[in-house]
Amino acid sequence: MSQTAIKNGYYGDFGGSFVPEDLQEVLQYIGEQYEKYKNDPEFNEELEYYLREYAGRENPLYLAENLTKQLGGAKIYLKREDLNHTGSHKINNVLGQILLAKRMGVKRVIAETGAGQHGVATATACAMFGMECTIYMGAKDTKRQALNVFRMELLGAEVVAVDKGQGLLKEAVDEAFADLVANYKNTFYLIGSAVGPTPYPEMVEHFQSIISKESRAQHLAKEGKLPTAVVAAVGGGSNAAGAFYHYINDEEVRLIGVEPAGAATLSKGSPAVFHGFKSYVLQDEEGNLLDTESIAAGLDYQGVGPLHAYLHTTGRGEYVTATNEEVLEAFKTLSRVEGIIPALESSHAVAHALKLAPTLSPEDSIIVNVSGRGDKDVEQVFAMLNK
Amino acid sequence: MSQLKDAILATTANGDKAFVPYIMAGDGGLEKLQSTISKLQELGVTAIEVGIPFTDPVADGPTIERAGERALANGTTLRKVIETLAGFASEIKVPLVAMTYLNPILAYGVEQFAQDASAAGIRGVIIPDMPLEEKDIIHPALQEANIALIQLVSLTSTPERVERLTKASEGFIYAVTVNGITGARSSFANELEEHFAKIQDYTDTPVLAGFGISSPDHVKSFGAFCSGVIVGSKIVDSLANDDWATIEELVLASKVATVR
């Protein structure tokens, strides 16, 4: 990415660090540590080791031939983040941040989680690195992702159900920040999405950028050129940030983010300061946050990472929406046609690819980021389809 | 100059300590705001901190957060609070301090907010999620309207940061006395006294202690080494229970007759 895009934690007008005084220095310290290690060869060697040997990277860029044939347009490639250990892209960032926490000498890790994927990934890494782990999760999310709660507990994490407000990701983030303020001396807050105050968005994007680093090289090797478009689901925006990152300067590659119609932050929101940063947010005219509604817990969030707000306002990124019905249809289609059950979050990207591919020519190609696998959603979808 | 600072200095000149209660506007209905403010004035408070409810109150403890949820459920908004205050502005005798997050002000419009707030008797604002580094977003408009921008100074801050925050703070300095969020606590860290002395070294602006003060004893023990106290959760709880006796005891503890 061009160096002018990010300056002092700002992406154009977006980003920054809008947190209470108690947190300012804690965050500054984390930022300094991140800057110190992100280009450290030893740190990166260790990170690469765990990404390869533990998470199972690199994962395939798979040509979905059946789906391509059925849609009769652009070639569809699937970036298989669902094949990572723990079943989603979340592990990429978790391994990066936990290695940072380890170097900072911290023994306790906390995290927020929406769908549970980030919580599971964090609990997993904490188990492996022998760290104490507390996961904050909205009470409503703990109910619709009960198996992930069990998974985290199995991995030795304490899961705290946050029964406030809507009981969703927002409330979980609030609780995690409160914990960090009270326990910053021995605790690292491992944020899973590309949101929050500086340095988190940049840090998460950096650790997730492995997705596009791989996919770009893989696509070049297979097709001898860059893809026409990269499509990824956007909630907070971490998988999309990772999927777009190394294409941002490739102006000919379309970057398409797909939001849930019921939480369409970029399509329907406006700039605001929330959760410690400035970005697009779904708010009323008084500046209070609006409720969201998505079948994908991982996208059920009022805000969006500052990188996406920046790409949206500069026109570099295209942000579209998918309805719950379209998402369910995509979930079923990819399962049936390719034998790949995508997460409901990832199904947003699939849903848009189903619309986009037929409008393009066979010379075009689309990379769809399959950010996670759908096993966790099967029970929920079963209930919805048999209502 | 700052009416807020003057009010605090006038209080301490008598030997009393400043007492600033925090109330959540709209908790129990906005129609209660006038009578609450007038009763607090009668008890002899120095200023009143008026909390504006927000959907994402990252710096509030559970008591105030719940009060905020009740106020939001009543339809309370920044706009309505200012309108309500403006309706009885002539009867407001003590300076008001608005405690609000940044986003409602941005949605209101920074300049308009400063003008309307000033007309409604607001003489200071506390914006907990706006760091000093970002104060230019609002500071010029507040200066224009003669509203003090109050900084929070935390125990976790380095000496350099304490110095910068202290020097930038207007009206008074809001010293955060317990790590973390607001709420009643029973014990206090030992390093507090030193912390306050350090802050007062940098400025003649009065320092008030906040976050966690919940008994007349707390009021007195903090009063011993700063200019006064801000009491939040305990006041909010007492107001919700219509327990004015508790509030009166707290205010009395700040008066010279009871301060040793």
UniProtKB/TrEMBL annotation, chain A:
GO terms for molecular function: tryptophan synthase activity. Its EC number is 4.2.1.20. It comes from the Bacteria. It holds the Pfam family PALP. Keywords: Amino-acid biosynthesis, Aromatic amino acid biosynthesis, Lyase, Pyridoxal phosphate, Tryptophan biosynthesis. It catalyses: (1S,2R)-1-C-(indol-3-yl)glycerol 3-phosphate + L-serine = D-glyceraldehyde 3-phosphate + L-tryptophan + H2O. Its cofactor is pyridoxal 5'-phosphate. The modification N6-(pyridoxal phosphate)lysine is found at K90. InterPro entries: Trp_synth_b_CS (IPR006653), Trp_synth_beta (IPR006654), Trp_synth_beta/beta-like (IPR023026), TrpB-like_PALP (IPR001926), TrpB-like_PALP_sf (IPR036052). This is Tryptophan synthase beta chain. Tetramer of two alpha and two beta chains. Pathway: Amino-acid biosynthesis; L-tryptophan biosynthesis; L-tryptophan from chorismate: step 5/5.
UniProtKB/TrEMBL annotation, chain B:
Pathway: Amino-acid biosynthesis; L-tryptophan biosynthesis; L-tryptophan from chorismate: step 5/5. It is an enzyme of class 4 (lyase). The active site is at E49, D60. One of its GO terms (cellular component) is cytosol. One of its GO terms (molecular function) is tryptophan synthase activity. Keywords: Amino-acid biosynthesis, Aromatic amino acid biosynthesis, Lyase, Tryptophan biosynthesis. It catalyses: (1S,2R)-1-C-(indol-3-yl)glycerol 3-phosphate + L-serine = D-glyceraldehyde 3-phosphate + L-tryptophan + H2O. Its EC number is 4.2.1.20. It comes from the Bacteria. InterPro entries: Aldolase_TIM, RibuloseP-bd_barrel, Trp_synthase_alpha_AS, Trp_synthase_suA. PROSITE patterns: TRP_SYNTHASE_ALPHA. Transmembrane segments: none annotated. Belongs to the TrpA family. The alpha subunit is responsible for the aldol cleavage of indoleglycerol phosphate to indole and glyceraldehyde 3-phosphate. HAMAP family: Trp_synth_alpha. Tetramer of two alpha and two beta chains. This is Tryptophan synthase alpha chain. It comes from Lysinibacillus antri.
